[in-house]
Amino acid sequence: MSFEPMLNAGGWPLVLLIAVALAGVLAWSGYWLLRADADPGSKWTWGRRVALAIVTVLILSGPSVPVTETRPMSNIEIYLVVDRTGSMAAEDWAGGPNNGGGTRLDGVRQDLTAIRDAFPAARFSIIALDSAAARELPLTADTDAVTSWINSLQQEPTAKSSGSSLERALPQLTQDLKSSSENTPEAARLVYILSDGEATDDGVGASEAKAAGVSWSQLSAVIDGGAVLGYGTSEGAQMREFEVGQTPDPDEPKYITEPGTSQPAVSVPDTKELQTVASDMGLPYFQRTGGSDDVPTKDFTDVNVQEVFSDGRERSNRYTYFTWPLGLAAALLLIWELAALVRADRAAAHVTRPAGDADPPGGAAGAPGGSAPGVAGAVGAAAAPGSGGSMPIPVAAVPGGGVPGAVVPGAAVPGGVVPRGAVPGAVVPGGAVPGGAVPGGAVPGYGGSRGVPGSGAPMGGVR
User: Fold this and answer.
1) How many CB atoms lie within 10 A of CB 61?
2) Residue ranges per structural domain of the chain
3) Which Gene3D superfamilies match (predicted)?
4) Topology of 76-309 in CATH?
5) pTM for this one?
6) Could you give phi then psi for residue 124, rounded to 5 degrees?
7) How large is the C-alpha radius of gyration of the chain?
8) What are the phi and psi torsion angles at 214 (to 5°)?
9) pLDDT over 80 (residue 29)
10) For the segment 431-448, what is each residue's pLDDT rounded down to a tens digit?
11) What are phi and psi of 238, to 5 degrees?
């Protein structure tokens, strides 16, 4: 079990910030909920919220277990470095469409197709090499895209050619392989270099690679296979000219000439350079001419996937989050919290019900207009005499009966004693409350509890 934060954007710092914020809120609420005079249920409330905060932080921390997976063919990455300089248009490919009049690029297309067919579920990336090197197809499992690129492969336009070498592709290839080894270390990486090896840039590419600190030998640590495929015969051949928008005439092709002359130039493959590159990378080297002495394509495409993965490499940065038990605990705590809030809201509504709200039938009348237990009909409120009708006389329930809308001189109050606070601030009409009106009771609301003497007490006098 390990912890991998689920918040990729902030990681551990953001998780810690959330934990500190929750701790501060809990400390502040605990000051009020854990006081000695707090409600007994407050401790449960605070404990429940502490548990919910802890569960939240644990979920964000990402409890997880690393996963080791069986690698399918889709975990094979194939990097193709394709030379399309003018020399690849030399006519020394015996297996071309014209039965001997094909170019080296015809051989490249055939071998690219064989590599594609040998790894139908792999991902492909293509780096095209001419006067410069560029990744023309990023890693993709779309074989249709690979096929389309192969079919459209043409040599570099002759007018734009300014010399090239294999080393010009080295910085881009190194960058791609390094990125792959860091992001998908569990993948197998195969590299195929298809070129005639001829350098025509006067060492510029080699100097740039040296300045960048990259070399072919460095790549041997991050690749698992592939091959260096060379094209052309030892005698070499003339190179066809190519311009964008022009359709070459196969019967009368134009040829690249030697600088300063009208004589066709001859390209001879640099097999020594190709062998050196293959040796530095730890890859096999095959020279391809399209003749009967060529090895079959399966010799460089038959890769034992299980053997490639037998080094025990594991799929890193892959985890299965184990958060469902914490999620269940959080859900239960939230249900508990919501239930407690509902109970608290109902209790608060009962205590703070405003005067004038009607009680259910048979309940106590808490305000003017309500029903009094034991008395049929409504209990109203009357204005105090002499008040101009501006001061209502509140009425409350009396056990066993009810208080009329106004106290009438000489009228007995059913049920005996009027409870304290039942008629707050009421004015007694007629100036006196008969002795039998409130037997032994007290009339609250007159500056405290006052005794009620017999009849005849003057209005406003002592009762």
Assistant:
1) 20
2) 2-67+318-346, 76-309
3) von Willebrand factor, type A domain
4) Rossmann fold (3.40.50)
5) 0.55
6) -120, 145
7) 48
8) -120, 150
9) yes
10) 444 444 444 444 444 344
11) -70, 155
